Every structure is written in structure tokens, then in C-alpha cells.
Amino acid sequence: MSEEASRGRARWVAVARSSRAVRSTLAAGAAVTFAATLVASASPAFANGGVSVRANVPVTATNLIAKTANNSPSLASDPTDRRFVVIANRIDGPDFSCALQASGDGGASWVSPALPKLPEGAEKCYAPEVSFDRRGTLYYLFVGLAGNGNRPMGVYLTTSSDRARSFTTPRKVLGPERYGVRMALDPTMGPSGRIHLVWVEVNAEGGAGNGFPTMPNPIMAAYSDDGGRTLSKPHQISDPERPRVVAPALALGPNHAVHVLYYDIKDDVRDYAGLEGPTWDGTWALVATSSRDGGRSFSPGTVVESDLVPPERVMLIFTMAPPALVADGAGRLYAGWTDARHGDWDVFVRPSLDGGRAWQKARRVNDDPIGDKRNQYMPRLAVSPQGRLDVAFYDRRGNVENRGNDVYYAYSADHGNTFARNVRLSSWDSDSMIGYEYAIPSAAGLVEFGSRLALLSERSRVLAAWTDTRNNALGPPSQDIWAGEVAFPHARGIPPLLIVAAGAFAVIGGAAAVGRRRGAAAALEGLVAPPVAEGE
Amino acid sequence: MSEFSSHSWLMLRRALHIASVSAVMAACTSAGASAPLPPRPPVVEVTAREYRFDHTKAIPRGRVVFELVNVGTKQHRMTLIPLPADLPPLEVQARSKNTRVVDPQATTTPLAPGGKTSFATDLGPGRYGLICIIPVPGGLSHYRQGMVSEFRVP
Question: What's the structural domain count of chain B?
């Protein structure tokens, strides 16, 4: 812009945007009042839930000038030092990109380490995944995009052995046209662990436009035992008779079990191909498949949920939010998803106590009134070392316009049978309408808020990260990542050494001592309150 | 125990000690263990009251977290703006009718009295200002009443 033109805009931005500022201030004032009300009413909930919520912290650097939109975080912690925590996140604007956030104090403060240069041929980085091996090596996986259509031209893996100070040259692990790529690392296999990958492999000849091309576009899986240098032969893990499968989620269980949960959107051609139209009025299915041999072979799909009611249009099928999936150390599996069966959107969880062979009935996790026209969506699941199931999700119960997103948290102390009272984790709600928009038919009227939030479960705390727009209300479609922590005071202060010692004493002491150990194990749960939310 | 056997026993204990230390060291070897943890970004504490901001003027470049505490009796909001080199001092500019467009780099939410909030942002070298854009009746904003603060990042 010329200097003259600049002068033509001769006024403070605050003056120029005064009406917007007034609106924003008024809205914020209302939100402040609302927040104060919630804090007051939340105190009994904390007593009931036995948890406390700590102050939210900014993870990414706000930049309203660059209009940077950070979303879709994923958390991982270094098993050799849990103070080292990282977040990989997507950037949707001003252009597609990736980022890494790192914390040296368990998530209380954050910096943004530099990522390595993009490999030749890749113009942009997108959809990163992050994991650690047992030696503390950080694995960062991303999709390279190229061309006007931002087509995936390859999937790359880079590693850091010095806490994100430097990275190896990215190595290509998958070819072009791979979408929804997920990574998980089994640290117990081989000297450096086994890296599992799953993805939607698109028929390259069909050519993706606004949606997936002519089928088949199956979900595939492969693994690497040498840090991504070589990959096992990819094989299809989605059922061949399911033509429209999308958005896989990946979870690892004990004994090298690998679990994948994906959507079968059945006849929903509208979302699959990115066509114009309203929300699909049919149903989708959730399908799980498992490997019990370290990823060499997978079972036929098991239907977890057969009549899932789609909540809204899939904005962009390539980045569709995956369902939630997690396995605990005893082989239990938990699947989570968003469902509009009650009109508005709710978060549901189904447990499987036998590693995915059979699934129990769906439990509604959010405890607001059924059908209150406030949405809860995009759950993320995690399991603590002692088996507590944690759930975080976006929640609009506090906003009469059903567009302000808080983040809520709930836990289950009985393996997903019941859930404790929901706790508000965010201290400010984020506006669903702040973010980038796509000029394609399927995204008409929608704003990109990301495809996941992040959750990390530890014995005495839960760390979550989410898309946040509290500091982005001045106009630009920028978004930040913020983090919050839930602490379990009753699970704190029991050092692992004491647990080991107690276990050894129990073995020596015989049956009576074994009884005492069981009591100690129950105390270690740190869950003092009976769960109160149940049923659909 | 003879002198010889006593010495052998001592040697054996030393060997066992070395072996155990080596084993512990091997077990503790990890990829990132020798690398320092990421640093905490500096925190700039800002207090807001009618009508001024108070904070340290020594603010470094790089990632900085601004924490705002409202100790006043009215709602306030902290907005960070990079200042063009040729802009008059903020206190002068705020009273001037010759206004200039400066896009904000970061802002907090409006903050009620007694409240606390923050933002993180990356600062390069240059001139910056903190202003409060809360509007007041009559068309003025708090920054027009002098609620501005300027600092330079080296």
C-alpha cells in the first residue's frame, strides 16, 4: 500500500473498528459476567468431582497482523522426562502450514521451536502428528502439499534427539494422495519402537477436487521398525464392502495390539464428494478393526455404532475430524464421537472391555439437558496410567447463540460405564465464527475450527489444548492454541517408588499383604467422588 | 580372611560397583536427556488502572507473555501495536486529531476489575505501544484519556 493510501486510512484501527470493538466489548462483558457465574457455581462441582482446574495458558503467539490461524493440536510427553511436552498443530492461515510448540515445565509455558526446511517439491507443511520413543526421541510427521490445489505430494518424518533444538532432514515415508494420516509409536517393539501409520489412500487417477474421487479409496496401514527408513508393505484394513470410509483414528494397546476406528459414511455421496447441499439426512457407521500381531494383519471390521446421526456438513472431507479412540493398559478400548441423535450435538462414548471384539452401549458424556440446542462435539479421549478414562470436548452450553465454544472435561473411574460431572476447563469461550472459510460448496457458511483438540492423561493431572479465539476478536480470522490443566489432588504425592515398594512388600507378605496392595491400588485411583452422569 | 582374599573381595566389590554404575548409566541414557529443556518465555506483568498501564520497560525480543492485571475500577483491555518509526510519541498521538492506522499485533479480552488475563506474542526489534481501546460514552476510548504505554525492544 502506498504512503498516500496509508494516509487515506488515516485513523487508528481502534477508531476505524469502533463499532466492532463496542460489540466485542459488550459481548465480552456479558462473557465476563457469565464466567463469574460459572466459577461460583463450579465450586461445588469441584468438591463433587475431586478435581481442580488451573489457569489457562497461551500456547501459540498471537499475531493478528499475520492473521495466523493455529488449530488441531496434538499432545505428547517425553517418557524420559515428563516436563518436556510438545504440541503439533496445523496452521490454516494465512496459508496452510505446520507448527510445533514445546514446554519444559509440563505445559505451564510454551515456546515454538523451528521446524526443518521443507523437502524438495513440498511447498507447504500440513496435518502434523507427534510422538516419542522410549529414549525420548521426538518424531514429527507431516504431509507435504504442492500445487494450486494443495495436493498431498508425500508424507514425511523428521526426528529430534535434542528436545526440538534440531531436526533430521525430513524423510519421505509415504507417497502422494494420502489423507488423514495418523501416527502412533509402540515403544515396546524392537530397539527403537515400531511406528504405525494409517491413512486414506486416494485413487490418484480419479483426482481429488472438492471431495474424494471415484472409489475405491480405502484405509491402509503399514509400520516401520527402523525409524521410518523402511516401511512394511501397506495393506488395506477397511472392509472392502464399505466404499466410503474416512477419517481413521489410531490407538495402541498392550501386547502390541493396534486398533483403528473409522467412519463408514455409507451412501453420503454429498459429503464424500464435497457437493453442495444440506447436512446429510441419512446415518453413518463407526467401524473398528484390530491387529493382535503388531500390525501385520487386521480383523474384519466390527460395527461400533451403526446409526450415527451426522451433526453437520463435513466441511472438507480431506480433513474431517476423526472419531476418538484410546486403549488402556488392560486391553480395554474406548470409542468417542459426535452425534446429533437428540437434535443438537452430543458426545458419546462406547467402551469395549475385550479389546474391540464387543462394544457396550453408548454413554452420553455431556451432562447438559438433552435437546437443549447447545452443541457438544469433537471429543478427545485419553487414559491415565491407573486406568482413569479422560474426555475433553468442545461445548457451547454456556452460549445462547450456540456458537461460543468452551472446553469441558469429564472422567470415568469405572471404565466408561459412568462419567463424573462435567467441568469447564476453558476460562473464556471461543467464537466458532472466527477462522478461515473455504470457497467450496461443502464449506458454505462454515468456518474452520480444526479437526481435533489435544489431551494428555497422567496420574495426578490432565493437560488439554484446544483452538482458542479469546484474543482474536478484533477482526482477523486468526486462532491460537491455549492449554489448561485439571489436577487430581488426591492422586498427587504418591511417588512411583512407593508403589513399587508396596508391591514388593505385598509379594513377600502373602495373601494378607496382597489385600492391602489392592486397597492401595484403589486409593491410587485418586477419584474420590462417585460419578453422577449416566445414560443417554 | 587372608590378606589376599580380602583384596580379592575388595576388587570384586569394586568391579560390581563399576558394573552396576555402568548399568544404571546405560539404563538412563536417553536421546534428549542431555539436552536442556525448552526455556520459559519471559513474562511481562502489566497492571491496568484508570487510566494507565504500568510495566517494566525492559522487554526482550522473541516470545514474550504479557500478563494483564486490572487493579482499576473499570473494565480495561490491553492491545499491543507495533509503532511506525515516524509516529509521534503515543501520548502525543493519542491527543492528536491527526490519527494513523496501526493494526494491532495482539490484544486481550476486555477485563473486569480484579481480573487477570494474558497473551503470548513474538516481538522483533522495534517500537511498540500498549493501548486500551475500551470505548467510553462520548466517543472517546481509554487510550484517548492517556491509557497508553510505549516501549522499545532492542
Answer: 2
Scored b (16 or more CB within 10 A) or e, B104-130 reads: bbbbbbbbbeebebbbbbbbeeebbbb
Closest CA to A485 of A470, A469, A465: A465
Same-domain status, B21 and B65? no
Which residues are within 8 A (CB) of A259 and not within 5 positions of it... i.e. 6 or more apart? A250, A251, A252, A253, A288, A289, A290, A291, A325, A327, A333, A355, A356
Q: Min CA distance, A334 vs chain B (Å)?
A: 32
Q: Provide the grid cell at A219.
A: 484405509
Note whether B32 contacts A80, CB cutoff 8 Å.
yes
- Summarize pLDDT for A230-288 with one digit per residue, the tens: 999 999 999 999 999 999 999 999 999 999 999 999 999 999 999 999 999 999 999 99
Quick one: closest CA in B to A63, which residue? B105
Q: Which of B80, B109, B118, B143 has the most A C-beta neighbours within 10 Å, making it the best mutation to test the interface with A?
A: B109
Instruction: Pick the more confident residue, A337 or A441.
Output: A337
The answer to whether residue A8 is domain-embedded is: no
User: Minimal Cα–Cα distance from B57 to chain A, Å?
Assistant: 20
Contact A407, A73 (CB under 8 A): no
Number of structural domains found in chain A = 1
Nearest in space to B83 (alpha carbons), one of B46, B47, B131, B45: B131
Cβ(A359)–Cβ(A350) under 8 Å? yes
- pLDDT score for A30: 31
Give the domain extent around A324.
17-107+117-491
Residue A508 belongs to a domain = no
The domain that holds B58 is classified in CATH as 2.60.40.420
* A144 grid coordinates: 507435504
* B97 and B21 in a common domain: no
Say if residue B8 is in the same domain as residue B47.
no
Between B33, B79, B141, which is nearest A80 by CB?
A: B33
| B103 shares a domain with B79 | yes
CA distance A520 to A527: 13
Residue of A479, A451, A453 whose CA lies nearest to A466: A453
> Do B52 and B30 sit in the same domain of this protein?
no
pLDDT tens per residue, chain B (154 residues)? Answer: 344 344 444 444 554 444 444 444 434 456 666 799 999 999 999 999 999 999 999 999 999 999 999 999 999 999 999 999 999 999 898 888 887 888 999 999 999 999 999 999 999 999 999 999 999 888 789 999 999 999 999 9
Cell numbers placing B117:
488475563
The CATH number of whichever domain residue A461 belongs to comes to 2.120.10.10
Residue B27: domain span: 1-35
The grid coordinates listed for A350 are 462406547
Query: Are both B27 and B79 inside the same structural domain?
Result: no
B6 and B61 inside one domain: no
**Burial A252-278, CB ≥16 within 10 A → b, else e:** bbeebbbbbbbbbbbebbbbbbbeeee
